[in-house]
Amino acid sequence: MANTDSFYAVWSPRVLSVLRIVVALLMMQHGAQKLFGFPAGAQATPTPPLMSMMGFVGILEFFGGLLLLLGLFTRPVAFILSGLLAVAYFMAHAPQGFWPVLNRGELAALYSFVFLYLAVAGGGSWSVDYCWRRGASGQH
Question: pTM for the complete prediction?
Answer without folding.
Answer: 0.90
